Amino acid sequence: MNVIKVILVVVFLNLCACYGYASSRIKLNFDFDWKFSLTDHPGYAAIDYSDANWEQVQLPHDWNIKQKFDRKGIGSAAYLPEGIGWYRKTFFVPQSYKGRTVSILFDGIFQQSDVYINGKHLGHRPYGFCSIEYDLTPYLHTGKENVIAVRVNTTGGRPRWYAGAGIYRHVWLTAANPVHVATYGTYITTPEATEDHADVKIVTTVSNQSDKEQAITVTQRLIDDSGKEVARGKKGHLLIKAGNTADVEQIVPVASPRLWTLENPVMYTMETTVKVNNRVTDVYATPIGIRTIHFDKDKGFFLNGKHHKLKGVCLHQDAGCLGVAVPDRSYERRLEILKEYGCNAIRCSHNQPSAEFLDMCDRMGFLVIDEAFDKWKGGYYKQHFDEWWQKDMANMILRDRNHPSIILWSIGNEVGEASRKDNEGIERATMLRDFVHKLEPSRLVTLAAQNNHREEFASVPDVIGYNYLEARMLSDKKKLPERICLVSEELPYYRGEEGRLRSYTPLNPWQIVAGNDFVAGGFIWPGVDYLGEAGWPSKGWPNGLFDVCMFEKPRAAYHRAMWNPKPMVHIAVLDQALDIDHGRDLWQWPPIASHWNFPDKYRGMVMEIRTTTNCESVELFLNGNSMGRHKTANFTNNTIVWYLPYNPGKLEAKGYNGETEVASYRLITSGETDAAIVTADRTELKADGQDLSHIAIHLLDKDGNRVQTDDRKVTVTVKGEGKFLGMDNGDLRRESFTGNTQKTYFGNMLAIVQSTKKMGKISVHIVVEGVDKEYVVDLQSQSLKNK
């Protein structure tokens, strides 16, 4: 760290002290100025080790995603290698930190991490999805530079999906006074809440890290989204011995609260103030939403007394070319697209997500299943389960319990113990369920059960999730009417039969979810394509409704029609010869594309055309000639099937409710690529070194029609106060996730640009092979105050 940086840090912290911040906690983002080496040596932890030649990196960081694919590798890890890497960061600790409790919080390290401060080993954590906090206080050198080092080891077993490698989430440095609210130290519930009144219950855990017993006062006030205080609780008093913690319970009555709903997810902030001898020692802010949730065995799920069917998707955490080092804006964009699509629920598969992801679900109005584990003792976690399950599950619950979006705690997925003839699985499930009930009783417990599970096992959780077992769910409900059910993993197209999962019946399983009131909802597997669980040459699972770029696939039309009330009609053409990564059999969709560009040999060939709609009827036109009008109710899956000979030109569908046209869609035979349409989702970025702009590139012919059958190479170059982060075309069969040149897939490409920490202009230059024009997208990186 150079002298100028040291001076700036000292000046900043002194200013904070002058303006009163010293009376409370300091929380600093710790993502920048790290060094990395994909090698392993015990000397790397030493404070005097020279890392001058190491790679400079910024967190979140996933070293795995930039490595070479190896066909001899493991498909579950996207054919990317395991390994051991080290991170180091040198940072200055000012004298003003003396007497404070200083801690470091890692939102996620995958996996088997060891953390050192100034050569001292702080701890080991095998699980790669939990948050990890260490107290640095005893080992820090105030007024001097300090070195934190992190060893990350992905050898010895990884999950069934791609989980990356490295410090892949945010890191935070916190300095607090000795008497402060403990990390995750507020537990806030709203067991009863109406539009007239709510009692907000708060349990606050206060830590006394001073050297003597302290008399402590705790006060709470509720602040709305405009910064106005709307309620205040009574003072709480504690007497805490040195080195101990204690809880205080308070109730804040709220008149006429604005309830957290899917349509209007109102968030408040509960501000907790801790005082010793009338001096403020800590101010701790907790975002909350006021709402009630309820699961009914006959009617499903209710939010604030209003029934909602869970229109859900299962999500893994990677984002294509970014791997698992996903900046917040990438997650936010994903959720924005899913929200517009009609999705209202997320199942976090099969691990707790980042805290920032849950914050977004709170703000945007999603219902969330927070999941602790995949398998228990049948997968890679087997070697760690007995020692670590309580710590890892407690971490998830304590960290996430105040999110109004979370409606269920999931204790596992497709565990091998579910079908055991002895009672080991039942006993283990009961142990986990009871642990959750004791720690956080305001929500029910679920787990996802696979084929051939025992009935007694599925009766352990409060809510049982069926994975692809809709038929069994229906028969179970007849035998066990008190059972609360949902479909935790739902096939996107085919339906199985009881006892014969692979029946490939072309009746969409969502019809069972929608048609039975007792089914709380369903979660499509998956909502978005992901890396891992792959079969070469694919590097991932390609059967989502959206690809890794978040481009909506033709197959997604059905659930859009079911979940989104806006009238729509969509056209897709069936062709077995399409260049599509088909993926696993049961999760496939018939090979369809939304274009009208086929080889000359197809001319005159009768082809199957599908118009998926939520309209009452559809009329189809080929080159201006009506091919008839059909009622949607006469066909399965809200999809009218037509058979027409292929002739280039225009294919148009019009959707009607009664005799009123309410929706339309058309496909036009395009020519060769002549141009592109280039669109940035955002042109103004925060100059925080982390914000993103996603630039979509779609090929066009000379008449402005979309081109999907004449793919071209695209090269992206970034100049100014931004950096090229990656590019993707949605095809998981790609050969590398590195480089700034890539070929489009179905005429599509996505480029991702990240801001630096300097304000200024960013120019993104895009060159399309065979197109004379260079496209330039102008972005602006500006002050955080202006965002």
Which oligomeric state applies? single chain
Compute the number of helices: 9
Strand content bin: 35-45%
Strand order of the largest sheet: 22-23-24-25-26-27-28-31
Class by SSE composition? mainly beta
Average pLDDT works out at 95
Tell me the radius of gyration.
28 Å
Straight-line N-to-C gap? 30 Å
Low-confidence stretches: 1-21
**Count of extended strands:** 50
* Main β sheet profile: 8 strands, parallel, barrel
**Residue share in helices?**
10-25%
Based on CA inertia axes, which overall geometry fits? globular
Question: Can you give me a brief rundown of this structure?
Answer:
Helix content is 13%, strand content 40%. The chain has 9 helices and 50 strands.
How would you characterize the overall build of this protein?
The protein has 787 residues and is mainly β. 13% of the residues lie in helices and 40% in strands. The protein has nine helices and 50 strands. The strands form twelve sheets. An eight-stranded parallel beta barrel has the order 22-23-24-25-26-27-28-31, surrounded by four helices. The protein has a six-stranded antiparallel β-sheet with strand order 3-2-4-9-6-7. α2 (328-341) runs parallel beside α3 and α4 (385-400) runs parallel beside α5 (424-439). The longest helix is centred in the N-terminal third of the chain and has 16 residues, at 3-18. It is globular and about 90 Å long. Mean pLDDT is 95; it is low at 1-21.
